[in-house]
Amino acid sequence: MILNPRIWSQTVEAAKLAAVSSPRWLAAIDKAVAGVTSGWWIVTELYNSVVITTETGKTYFANGHCQCEAYRRNQPCKHIALARLLDRYNERMASNA
What we know:
This protein has a domain at 44-91. The protein is globular, with a radius of gyration of 13 Å. The protein is α+β, with helices and mostly antiparallel strands. The chain contains 4 helices and 3 strands. Helix 1 packs across helix 4 (78-96).
């Protein structure tokens, strides 16, 4: 996945500002960003979801729901955070085109 660094950075900062009152969502956003920017995760965008294979080799489908333990415990999920970031990123890219 190749991201425009400027647009990605703007997207992440906007998401963090929106989540400033939720430390757990901020942590999920940070983990999602680390997973993508470090190359630890393999990310595939599909029509209605994002497929994320993590550094542990586990694959998750984030489409408003997730199969991870955090999501099952009703906690902020780094996979859902990434899916939301990518949605916002793609909106920004489309508006800049």
